[in-house]
């Protein structure tokens, strides 16, 4: 199967301590792959390396067969790698629709040009509504972003990410910080994106049970190292993984 992303021996040290150590992974195109691991396993650091927020001490990253190890985050985005927005990138006093329209506009390269933006306004708006429907948030299109519930904000972030038309989505704990009642709706959104079949999804999750039925494959990080990789079933039955999660080493407090 064709890979969209490969890392070789990816490593980063912070003051002599390796937060990510010798990680070689391969993400096949159009798959849903999850990266799981307990607190401090190195998941977010790995994402920061993939998206270019951090530079590795050692190792390489190939995206669509191109070495992107030293490319800036915006160049990676332009190549088709999209990392979920943090909520700080959402304009709280704009409506949900306006936020997504701005993301569509930014993806189309229309910036600071009032007249060309105006002439294409309707087209951008239609596209924005399409993304809002994909995340099941079109009913809230006229609400101010600041009035959304946490789970709805997550959906808005995902809609804004989709508006950038990424081929690979990097999703960092999309269910973190939301109420337990809102979790199924987010998982439905992810399932919907997966079923459309044209995206590759790499998702970080702290809680193993959250992603097992959505994932085509699961990679487990532990102490910065790749502990295991395989189908959800393989991972569930893997003794090393069980001891990492269940052997008293795993802090499930967060
Ligand atoms: N900028 C940094 N400077 C020093 N140490 C760091 C830095 N960023 C991360 N670390 C350390 O690297 C290790 C991995 O952290 P990371 O946040 O990647 O883990 P994680 O798997 O995402 O954990 P969580 O599930 O709690 O978010 C931790 O020990 C953390 O303290």
Task: Describe the protein's topology.
Elements: E1 3-14, E2 17-23, E3 26-28, E4 32-36, H1 43-51, E5 58-63, E6 66-67, H2 73-79, E7 81-83, H3 96-107, H4 114-119, H5 121-134, H6 150-162, E8 168-172, H7 183-196, E9 200-205, H8 208-211, E10 217-222, E11 225-230, H9 232-237, H10 239-246
Parallel strand pairs: 4-9, 4-10, 7-8, 8-9
Antiparallel strand pairs: 1-2, 1-3, 1-5, 5-6, 10-11
Helix pairs in contact: 3-5, 3-6, 5-6
Bound molecules: adenosine-5'-triphosphate.
Tally the structural domains: 2
Q: What portion of residues belong to β-strands?
A: 15-25%
Helix content: 25-40%
Bound molecules: adenosine-5'-triphosphate
Order of helices and strands: EEEEHEEHEHHHHEHEHEEHH
Tell me what the structure shows.
The chain has 254 residues and is of the alpha/beta class. It has helices at residues 43-51, 73-79, 96-107, 114-119, 121-134, 150-162, 183-196, 208-211, 232-237, 239-246, and strands spanning 3-14, 17-23, 26-28, 32-36, 58-63, 66-67, 81-83, 168-172, 200-205, 217-222, 225-230. It has two domains: 1-80 and 166-254, P-loop containing nucleotide triphosphate hydrolases (Rossmann fold, 3-Layer(aba) Sandwich); 86-165, no CATH class. It has ten helices and eleven strands. The strands form two sheets. It has a six-stranded mixed β-sheet with strand order 7-8-9-4-10-11, sandwiched between helices. Strands 1, 2, 3, 5 and 6 form a five-stranded antiparallel β-sheet that branches. α7 links the parallel β8 and β9 (200-205). It starts with a strand and ends in an 8-residue tail after the last helix. Bound molecules: adenosine-5'-triphosphate (ATP). The site of adenosine-5'-triphosphate has 11 residues, from α1.
